Structure formats: structure tokens, C-alpha cells
């Protein structure tokens, strides 16, 4: 017995001439099931969240109280197409991108904190 035979297992365990061919519909069915799992667990929820975020961004107006992705809380002082001036304290304004808005809060939330 040489070293090569000891390291490589026997590849042809089945007798010569016999090949096992499975049902091709089984392979197609598995691909369809994985596609459905991918759609319902990954793609659909992500597109739903993106649609909700687009609706949130488009509905912002002056005076709305928002939370940014970084956790900053403030009131919208100025609003342009791409940027928001966020008043985080009396006389302190910060410019952020609209896409950085994480959530809109009910009116009076900042005063109650």
C-alpha cells in the first residue's frame, strides 16, 4: 500500500457502467423552494422597509420632531430637497441628510423629556 492510496479514498465505489440519475424535477423543485424562501424572508421585508422610509422622508415638514440614525433628537427648523436643519437645542442647529432620519415622533415628545 503506497501513501497515495492511503490519503485518497476510493472514488469508484459503485460498479463500472452504473450511473445514478435523479429526477430533474426534484432539483427544480428545490431551486423554487429556495427562491420562495429568499423572497419571503429577505427581499420582501427589505423592500417594505425601504418603501416605509421613503414615505416617512416625503412626509416630513417644518416643526416635526424626529430621531436620526445616530440617535440625535430634534425639531426640523429648515427643510430642503436633500438636507434638514435640525434644531437640537435652543439656537443650536445641525444640518443632516434626509436619509439619516430614522423615525418621526409625536408632537411634544421633546418637551416631555
Molecular structure report:
The N and C termini lie far apart (80 Å). The chain has 2 domains: 36 residues; 53 residues, SH3 type barrels (Roll), CATH 2.30.30. The protein is an alpha+beta fold and 113 residues long. Strands 4-3-2-1-5 form a 5-stranded antiparallel β-sheet. The protein is built from 3 helices and 5 strands, in the order ααβββββα. The protein is 39% helix and 26% strand. It is elongated, with a radius of gyration of 29 Å.
Q: What is the class of the largest domain in the CATH system? A: Mainly Beta
How many structurally independent domains?
A: 2
Radius of gyration: 29 Å
Mean pLDDT: 87
The helix-strand sequence is HHEEEEEH
Shape: elongated
Which SSEs are present, and which pair or pack?
Blueprint: H1 3-7, H2 24-58, E1 65-68, E2 73-79, E3 83-89, E4 92-97, E5 101-105, H3 109-112
Antiparallel strand pairs: 1-2, 1-5, 2-3, 3-4
In short:
It is built from 3 helices and 5 strands.
List keywords for this structure.
SH3 type barrels; alpha+beta; 113 residues; five-stranded antiparallel sheet; 5 strands; 39% helix; 2 domains
